[in-house]
Amino acid sequence: MAAWVHACLEPPMTLPTSLTILPLGVTVPVVPGQSLLEAALAAGVSLPRSCRNGTCRACRCQMRSGAVRYRIDWPGLSPDERDAGDILPCVALPGTDVGETGEAVNIVIEAPLAQRQPAPLPPPPST
Questions:
Q1: Closest CA to 8 of 104, 94, 88
Q2: What residues does the 2Fe-2S ferredoxin-type domain cover (predicted)?
Q3: What is the residue extent of each domain of the chain?
């Protein structure tokens, strides 16, 4: 069952952490201190976003498994939305209540509007 932790009071996770983004089926690494949105973008996956501070809700998606904690005390989700598994990847960090067995942690989210970003163009040849 998906879980969330209210505030980001603990140190960042040090266990290997990954994020799987459905329906793309892409799994990307999440480094300590990196939000789920930042991890996706760093791996070439674009998620809807706007404010990046948890207020606009443009990045809202469903967490299917795993746990998150937030960089801010109260992200823009109602208690009912949190209970339903909604998260805001722009301010969501991997939670600390999973992976206590020393195993790698995988967070699974469903973000129907996620897209793979095109690979960057190579630099022009020097003349």
A1: 94
A2: 17-111
A3: 3-115
Which residues lie across from 37 on neighbouring strands?
A: none
Beta bridge partners of 3: 67
Report how far apart, in Å, the C-alpha atoms of 3 and of each of 6, 14, 62, 110 are.
10, 19, 11, 15
**Separation CA 43–CA 90 (nearest Å):** 15
The two three-digit tokens of residue 18, written as one number: 């990954």
Domain 3-115 fold is Ubiquitin-like (UB roll) (3.10.20)
- Of 99, 98, 103, 117, whose CA–CA distance to 37 is shortest? 117
Using CB atoms within 10 Å of the CB of residue 30, give its burial: 0 to 12 exposed, 13 to 18 middle, 19+ buried.
buried
Averages of pLDDT over runs of 10 residues in the chain (127 residues) are: 47 74 95 94 94 91 94 87 94 72 82 86 77
Burial class (CB in 10 A: 0-12, 13-18, 19+), 37: buried
